[in-house]
Amino acid sequence: xxxxxxxxxxxxxxSRLVGLLSDVLPPDAVVHDTAETRAYECxxxxxxxxxxxxxxxxxxxQEVAAVLKICNREGVPVVPRGSGTSLAGGALPTxxxxxxGVARLNEVLETDYDNRFIRVQSGRTNLSVTGAVExxxxxxxxxxxxxxxxxxxxxxxxxxxxxxxxxxxxxxxxLLGVTMVxxxxxxxxxxxxxxxxxxxxxxxxxxxxEGQLGIVTxxxxxxxxxxxxxxxxLVGFESNEVAGACVSDIIKAGVLPVAIEFMxxxxxxxxxxxxxxxxxxxxxxxxxxxEGSVAEIDEQLKVITKIANKHNPVELRESQSAEESEKxxxxxxxxxxxxxxxxxxxxxxxxxxxxALPHVLKRIGEMSKEYGLDVANVFHAGDGNMHPxxxxxxxxxxxxxxxxxxxxxxxxxxxxxxGCLTGEHGVGIEKRDLMxxxxxxxxxxxxxxxxxxxxxxxxxxxAKVFPLxxxxxxxxx
Amino acid sequence: xxxxxxxxxxxxxxxxxxPIVIRGGGTRAIxxxxxxxxxxxxxxxxxxxxxxxxxxxxxxxxxxxxxLETVLAGESQRLPFExxxxxxxxxxxxxxxxxxxxxxxxxxxxxxxxxxxxDYLLGVRFVDGQGTIIKNGxxxxxxxxxxxxVKLMAGSYGTLGVLTQVAFKVLPIPExxxxxxxxxxxxxxxxxxxxxxxxxxxxxxxxxHAPQGTNDMPITxxxxxxxxxxxxxxxxxxxxxxxxxxxVWVESDPEKSSAIWKWARDVELFHEKAxxxxxxxxxxxxxxxxxxxxxxxxxxxxWGGGLxxxxxxxxxxxxxxxxxxxxxxxxxxxxxxxRSTLPVFQPEPAPLAAxxxxxxxxxxxxxxLNANLMG
Lengths: 477, 375
Known about the structure:
Largest sheet of chain B: 5 strands, antiparallel
Number of helices of chain B: 14
Largest interface: A-B, 94 and 81 residues
CATH architecture of the largest domain in chain B: 2-Layer Sandwich
Shape of chain A: globular
Helix content of chain B: 25-40%
Strand content of chain A: 15-25%
CATH topology of the largest domain in chain B: Uridine Diphospho-n-acetylenolpyruvylglucosamine Reductase, domain 3
Mean pLDDT of chain A: 95
Radius of gyration of chain A: 23 Å
Shape of chain B: globular
Number of strands of chain B: 17
Low-confidence stretches of chain A: none
CATH topology of the domain at 230-334 in chain A: Alpha-Beta Plaits
CATH class of the largest domain in chain B: Alpha Beta
Low-confidence stretches of chain B: none
Oligomer: heterodimer
Largest sheet of chain A: 7 strands, antiparallel
Distance between the termini of chain B: 24 Å
Radius of gyration of chain B: 21 Å
Distance between the termini of chain A: 23 Å
Strand content of chain B: 15-25%
Number of helices of chain A: 18
């Protein structure tokens, strides 16, 4: 992936910037030693690395505002960073940029059970938001796989999802308000403890804008009462097509499971070797989870198993205990780790209409043979959000490039069948150059014009989301 | 102008020399009074795609909402956000369109649990103020590819573009619904009851309170939906939770339940009643205090107390009565004069107003689309 060449004028004024930033931040919040800036050289898309000029770790909204004011005046690009778990390179720096990490902004500011919200600083991790309310039996619904580490700031930037969003929605559906700092240092409050926008839905466009419109320092999040219970059922099938048809039939039947997860044979085999969850050796496997009281769960699972049985499953296992439930989820939850044991992998994130699942899985299988690279599929089937994991060897010259070409072909297939390039990971740098396959020049121009309004100098995370040549003149101006 | 295709819309906008008033079904005359050449979406009809197994429907914006809902009902599915029908409240006549509910981000009582219109909007196609055709989002349930202009378009009242096509996520219609009600509660007790219900694990999908219901008595209403046994179970559980507040009556006839929620959704309480209608969104527990401050001729609380419908004497500035509050107030029904003098939509702080203006200038640089509707 190409990144813009660093601006020599900015590189030359590093010490001046250190001085200016040290005037508004405590000494340990300005990271400028070249050995230490390496800690910020990449996110979870580790194939691409570049240490930033500097990193700053502000601990308040006011400090973020002071930093941005300086960077804006000095014309220095700023790369916002949550916990650095982006799989799309959303937090990848350039050599002339200042990384602004929100890790020190991790307080809970207010919990309100009567109105069902929590207000947190944006560096707080996703799981610890639930952690702050679970003793009162509440939870924060979006649950990305990286929830132990990922920050709410990054969740908002990427509009993160998770396994349970079939029922509860993604970040944007659970975000009530933000405190955000604009690139010029202006602090704005958008949304709040009430529902819906007063005028234009600015909150809606900020969520998912990949840190390009402003830096969110505080967020008001919707919290929900935990269901009385949840129970998964595991169903194995002899083909991907049959599993896909079963998903469609369940959805049509009027049951809305909280999650429908799908794994194909390569993924099942990998996780079995790794975690030994006791999955059947079959072509495709679904984990379907429903929620409610014991009787409600029984009733829903009765409907689901009846449908599943019509598709002649090779195995149907309804959890009978908490331990068994845990075991059913164990394989799914360790899938990425299991595949990582076999080889390096690239995780894609295209979303397709549920009806296109069998066709797309078949095509991926064919392409896998053409490219000579194995693919394991594990994904959120209920909402069509695929996660093909392409296996490659990073030490083998040319394999990363081959893998990227293969990945691009899969994503273009997703677009071709009516889907999109990314369902929950974001564009970052990874899918930047594929944007023109999903969008026309006019579609992209409309999006660029939104950034023009929020960040006229194009200093916030400027080399992301859009193909570099479409943003060149703006970044240079 | 009644363009027959998206390209016709683009041509009409590009060729326009003056203000354009976008018209769907003509049932929601909300905002500042407008003048200009009418551009009707009446000929942009048709459901373009419906996949029940993918929970997705795509329709052109001039499609009648009723027609879309009938098609969905044929597969036992629905738009989960329960869009209200403004005709009774505004005294309009027509057929609400799919585009209209998106342009005004119209949601009903279920919004408190299920989310708003914007939460179920998967994709849009629209024509901007220069006549350029733009798409955003798509037809899949999870999509973070590029900026989310879908949300920006929902509730923009045609001031950023003429919507031509929209895609929704839909959900199954539950087997049954039941409504729990308590009479004679004060606004404060009623709000407490609604918070208790919404904070329970029993998936309440409607939580409203009328200080003066149909027979002038206060009535507090809670809805649950789902499979029959589950609804019975949850009704019993909720009854126990609410026992300390008041006696709970359970209406388990789904048709009667449906009538109750149509009454709340469409604010039937204010139909045929003179006066201005304000719609105020606040934190639910702030509701009763806000309601008291308004000193209104009629009140209806929805969304657990956080949505307040208020009937006020003609020309009253509700915001002045509240003298600063957290949330927003919209003047939904008033004379042309009042809607020209009082801000219809909540005024924004200067930095946000600058962003809104900046976006308007980008999407409609000539300022011709529903110009000034949002003030």
